[in-house]
Design goal:
This protein is of the alpha/beta class. It has 9 helices and 13 strands. The strands form 3 sheets. A 6-stranded mixed beta sheet has the order 5-6-7-3-8-9, with helices on both faces. 33% of the residues are buried. The structure holds adenosine-5'-triphosphate (ATP). Residues 18, 23, 41, 43-49 line the site of adenosine-5'-triphosphate.
């Protein structure tokens, strides 16, 4: 009986050194199918090195790697390569080939029919340029061709290094729609990105690399919780209601008063509901309530703060 592939990536205490320098050290992580994990970190944090280890392009100096239940550095892994889609950070194509010829070339490499490629061009919105030479493509068009190439053959694991580089806002949205579709059809997705603002609400988990080490990993709410990052409850209300809220929450929640009619309570995420319940129980006149959780960018800054860990989260 064929076993379900789960998880797609398992890393145990992975390290990679170049000479005396460890580019990554002691990295453990698991990526199950139907999940999207974002790998984030400053320049030089070790993201590309980790991706190369996962793809079997370089051997780790320490630890164990399993990708689709196999060691990617072993010879027998080659038969699993067609189950992996990879978009490199820098997409380089032969300029004289057309989009169709390029994708046909990659389809053949994966053992797929080279004449059924229209759906891929449609998905990345490149159908109008299939017979145009790649040398005439814009940067964003080349990036979309790279994504079409990664999607060939419905991979079980998609590794996307900076997938939205050079894309306009509509194309960026489309990439996240494609990621969602691939996830729903069972793929595991590893995405490396510096554009943290677009990852909020679009990923299942995040792994933060800092100088080659794993600074944190988990869901965004888990990471906020781990270092006690505060959420904000913004209340717009008549001055007397704001005054009453300021008195009621003088202890516990941190209060910022922006004007007579705007008050903000800063509290731990698991205190939000209780605070809201207390406010509503007072029967005060309230015009508007806004709940703001720390963004991934703020979470990332808190974990990568060089001076004092956690210094951004107060
Ligand atoms: P960026 O966001 O800039 O792409 P990154 O997180 O992908 O950075 P890596 O490219 O993995 O970072 O590099 C991590 C560290 O390993 C860097 O200090 C880099 O100089 C070093 N490194 C990577 N590849 C090599 C190599 N082939 N030889 C020597 N050092 C290397």
């Amino acid at each position: 009986m064929k076993m379900d592939i789960f998880p797609a990536i398992e890393l145990l205490n992975i390290g990679k050194s170049f000479g005396k320098k460890w580019a990554i050290k002691d990295i453990s992580l698991t990526l199950p199918e139907r999940q999207c994990l974002a790998l984030v970190g400053h320049n030089g944090a070790g993201k590309t090195t980790l991706i190369k280890v996962i793809l079997g392009l370089i051997k780790p100096s320490a630890g164990e790697v399993r990708v689709l239940h196999h060691d990617p550095a072993m010879r027998d892994f080659s038969k699993l390569r067609c189950s992996i889609g990879f978009l490199p950070e820098q997409v380089l194509f032969q300029k004289t080939l057309t989009g169709r010829e390029t994708l046909a070339f990659y389809a053949r490499l994966k053992g797929l029919p080279a004449n059924k490629l229209d759906e891929y061009f449609e998905r990345v919105d490149l159908h109008a340029a299939v017979d145009q030479r790649v040398g005439t493509y814009s940067k964003g068009m080349r990036q979309r061709l790279g994504i079409a190439q990664a999607l060939l053959g419905r991979p079980k694991l998609l590794v996307l290094d900076e997938p939205t580089t050079g894309l306009d806002p509509v194309a960026r949205q489309n990439i996240y729609k494609i990621i969602d579709e691939e996830k729903k059809s069972g793929a595991a997705i590893l995405i490396s990105s510096h554009v943290l603002t677009e990852l909020d609400d679009r990923i299942d988990r995040v792994a933060i690399l800092n100088e080659g080490a794993m600074a944190a990993q988990g869901t965004i709410p888990q990471l906020r919780h781990q270092i006690g990052m505060r959420s904000r409850i913004g209340i717009t209300a008549p001055p007397e209601s704001c005054d009453a809220i300021a008195v009621a929450f003088a202890e516990g929640a941190r209060i910022e008063r922006f004007s007579a009619e705007k008050i903000v309570l800063r509290c731990l995420p698991d205190q939000k509901v209780e605070i809201l319940r207390k406010i509503m129980a007072k029967g005060l006149a309230i015009t508007d309530i806004e709940l703001i959780d720390p963004t991934l960018e703020q979470v990332f800054n808190a974990y990568s703060c060089p001076v004092q860990p956690g210094c951004h989260h107060a």
